[in-house]
C-alpha cells in the first residue's frame, strides 16, 4: 500500500487519528487505574487490620510483617470513634514525600498526580487516606512506596497502547476497504472515462453515463457528462467552421475576379441613355464593390476574425433607405408572396460614426431575417426600422410583425449554425451581425420575440477606446450613395 495514492493516505490518517483518540483516553485510564490500585491497597490493609482487631491481642512480629507485606503497605492507621489508632506498623524506609486523600479528589488533580508518579523514576514513600469499606471506621490511612504503583501503571499503559494499535490497524483496514469500494472505484471510473474521452473527444461513445450510487460522485459524473456533451458539440461546430473557411477561401480568388469584371461593366452603365439605368447604376456599383471587399477578407473571416472597422461619418437615413430598397426589391421578386411594408423612423439629419460597409451588413442581415420570417407565414407584415441618438452613442431598432423566434433559436441566438430559425438557414446572419457590432464596441440585443413579432436593438458607442490607429481619427463626412 503506497502513501502516494488516496487509499494509502486514507489508511494512514485513519490509524493516526485512532491512535490520537486512544492517547486522549490513556490519561484518564491511567488515572483510574492508579485510583483502583491505591484503593485495593487500602482494602487489603483494612482486612489485615481487622484480623488483628478480631483477636483483641497483639500479633507476633513475624505475623504482623506478613500481613503488611501481603497488603503491600508499611503501616495501617484506623480512625474509629474519633480515635486514631496505629493498628499495624513496620519500619518506614524513608520520609513521607506526599499525602493523597482519595475521599474527595478532583478529576484533573487525579490525572496530574498519575502523570507525576508515572514520570518520577525514584521510589518514594507516600501516605494514602481513604474511607473504610462497609463503614468499618471513619478513615483508614496507609503508607506505601511508589515503585510497585509506577511499574503497574507502565505495564497497564503498554497493554492499552498495544490494544489501541491493534484496533487502529484493524479500523484502518476496514475503512480502507470501504473507501476503496465507495470512493476509489467510482473515482477511478471517472478518471478512466476522462482519459478515454481526452483521446477521442469527437467520439460520443466515450461520453460517461452517470450511474454512481454515491450522490456526490453521481453529481460529478453528471457534470462531466454535461461538459463532454458541450465540448463535443463545440468541436463539431468548430470543425464545420474550419471546413467552411477553407471552402470559402478556395473560391475567394475566382469570385473576386468575376466580380471585378462585373464592376467594369457596371461602371459603363452610368453612361447609358436610359435615365432609369443611370439612376440604378451607382447602387449596383456600390453593391459589387462591397462584394469585392468581402471576398478580399474571406480568409480572415474563415479564421473567425473580422477586420477592424474603418470609421467614417455618414448619414444613417441614407444607409437605412439603401438596405430597405434592396430588401423590398427581393420581396417583390417572390412569386405569390404577400406584400411586406417597410417603415423607417430615422431622422434625416442623423449622422453617426462607424464603418459604413460593416453596418450595412449588420442591418441587411437583420432586415433580411425579418423579411424571410414574414414570407414564411404567407401573410402580409411590416418591418420597422427606427434610430436615435443618446448621450453615449446611437441606437438602431429593427422590429417586425412576424411569428417570433423558436425557443431553441433564442437559446443559441448569436452562435453560428445554432441560432437559425428558418428551414435551410445556416444561422450565420445573426452571428455575423453580433460580431460586427462587437467590433465597434457596441452590443446587439433581442428586446422581445413573441407571437406579435420580434424586435432587435443595437447600440453603437460614441467613443471606442479599444480601437487604435488612423481609423479612430475624425474624418470629414462622406457619402457613398
TrEMBL record:
<dbReference type="GO" id="GO:0005524">
    <property type="term" value="F:ATP binding"/>
</dbReference>
<keyword id="KW-0902">Two-component regulatory system</keyword>
<dbReference type="InterPro" id="IPR036890">
    <property type="entry name" value="HATPase_C_sf"/>
</dbReference>
<protein>
    <recommendedName>
        <fullName>histidine kinase</fullName>
        <ecNumber>2.7.13.3</ecNumber>
    </recommendedName>
</protein>
<dbReference type="InterPro" id="IPR004358">
    <property type="entry name" value="Sig_transdc_His_kin-like_C"/>
</dbReference>
<keyword id="KW-1133">Transmembrane helix</keyword>
<keyword id="KW-0472">Membrane</keyword>
<keyword id="KW-0808">Transferase</keyword>
<feature type="domain" description="Histidine kinase">
    <location>
        <begin position="250"/>
        <end position="464"/>
    </location>
</feature>
<keyword id="KW-0067">ATP-binding</keyword>
<dbReference type="InterPro" id="IPR003661">
    <property type="entry name" value="HisK_dim/P_dom"/>
</dbReference>
<dbReference type="Pfam" id="PF00512">
    <property type="entry name" value="HisKA"/>
</dbReference>
<keyword id="KW-0812">Transmembrane</keyword>
<feature type="transmembrane region" description="Helical">
    <location>
        <begin position="156"/>
        <end position="179"/>
    </location>
</feature>
<dbReference type="Pfam" id="PF02518">
    <property type="entry name" value="HATPase_c"/>
</dbReference>
<keyword id="KW-0597">Phosphoprotein</keyword>
<dbReference type="InterPro" id="IPR005467">
    <property type="entry name" value="His_kinase_dom"/>
</dbReference>
<dbReference type="GO" id="GO:0000155">
    <property type="term" value="F:phosphorelay sensor kinase activity"/>
</dbReference>
<keyword id="KW-0418">Kinase</keyword>
<dbReference type="InterPro" id="IPR036097">
    <property type="entry name" value="HisK_dim/P_sf"/>
</dbReference>
<feature type="transmembrane region" description="Helical">
    <location>
        <begin position="6"/>
        <end position="27"/>
    </location>
</feature>
<keyword id="KW-0547">Nucleotide-binding</keyword>
<dbReference type="InterPro" id="IPR003594">
    <property type="entry name" value="HATPase_dom"/>
</dbReference>
